[in-house]
Amino acid sequence: MFGQSGANTTITPQLTAIGDKWTTYCKALLLTAILGNPPTMPQTLTATNAGFAPNSQSAFNLTSKMRELPVEMVLIPYQAVVGSSTIIVPFTTT
């Protein structure tokens, strides 16, 4: 996987973003309820900074058994306007 390309000593593939903060790669998470009649509450859950938990296991065996993949996520708090005030929340619902 790693080696030299050509006559120079460039490592391939290039190792970029070493030392970046983990939160650099957190993205928005939007969960929407699928039951429509009657509408379930909450209808949506939105987190603007969500990422997979560090050191969480994401491997599973490919067997004939039912497959389950537990996903653990971390929701990073952010500022949101609720009513007329700004508060720090990990997620919002509608």
Outline the fold blueprint.
Blueprint: E1 3-4, E2 11-12, E3 27-32, E4 44-52, E5 73-75, E6 78-82, E7 85-89, E8 92-93
Antiparallel strand pairs: 1-2, 3-4, 4-5, 4-8, 6-7
Walk me through this protein's architecture:
The protein is 0% helix and 36% strand. It has no helices and eight strands. The strands form three sheets. Strands 3, 4, 5 and 8 form a four-stranded antiparallel beta sheet that branches. A two-stranded antiparallel ribbon has the order 1-2. A two-stranded antiparallel sheet has the order 6-7. The protein is flat, with a radius of gyration of 20 Å. A hairpin with a 2-residue loop joins strand 6 (78-82) and strand 7. The chain has 94 residues and is mainly beta. The mean pLDDT is 79. It has a domain at 23-52 and 71-94.
Helix content: under 10%
Backbone CA Rg: 20 Å
Number of strands: 8
Helix-and-strand structural type: mainly beta
Helix and strand succession? EEEEEEEE
Strand content: 35-45%
